[in-house]
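Work Package 3 (structural annotation) set out to generate three-dimensional models for the target panel prioritized at the project kickoff. During this period the team completed the workflow that converts sequence records into discrete structure tokens, so that structures can be stored uniformly alongside our sequence database. As a representative example, we reproduce one entry of 263 residues exactly as it appears in the project archive.
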Amino acid sequence: MSVKGKTVWITGASSGIGRALALGYSARGAHLILSARNVEKLQAVADACQGDGEIWIKPLDLADYNGLEGPVEDILQELPPIDILINNAGISQRCKVEDSNLALDQEIMDLNYFGVVAMTRLVLKQMISRRSGHMVVISSIAGLLGTPYRSAYCASKHAVRAWYDALRGEVYDRNIRVTVVCPGYIKTDISINALGEGGQKHNKMDENQAKGMDADTCAKIIIEGIEAGKTELLIGGKEKRVAYLKRFFPKAVEKKLMGFKPN
């Protein structure tokens, strides 16, 4: 399926995988709706796009999921129908359970789960009425297995993956596709922006993150996977093996993760 002339809405488009997806889709001739909280960063992404498709900057804060309905409905009425929605906005975590609290768990779940669910529901109405569309969520390999220092993050990515799997079973007969993307270590600022004890930024690049796949390569795999109609994509290096091993050798994987620390 060619994306030329299609309208792709990307949340979390101001940096990392979201930015790389915007550049990739622009190069393929798609029209883009770019959303995140920072308008200046979104404009920088739009300026970097090289395609001839239209680009609309529409700032949103998915963590404020109760306030999404009005702005999203306005966008849906103003702009062309959405062919692909990519829920990429999210935040990670780097702290022990004993050092965190419910407020931190809530902050992560608000963005990574409730914000995604709210956004998806609003756009889904239009796709159902048109009997056409593709829903995509960026989960994580952490959505397949739990890793230390990321308890709420893993929970949010498990939850959104399961929600999207359920959605797929409900809308398949209305020509709506659903793809769950599970990246591993991708070279972005996700560990730097991760929330630590007390909710402050981790402000440190993890060694595994720094050595990970570059965001442009990750975005290319995602775009090609969406075009091929893949239902789930695992992306990364050696860390992908751990997700597969978990299915067949859970005890071995659990033992390997004991004592694991961010580096």
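The longest helix spans residues 102-130.
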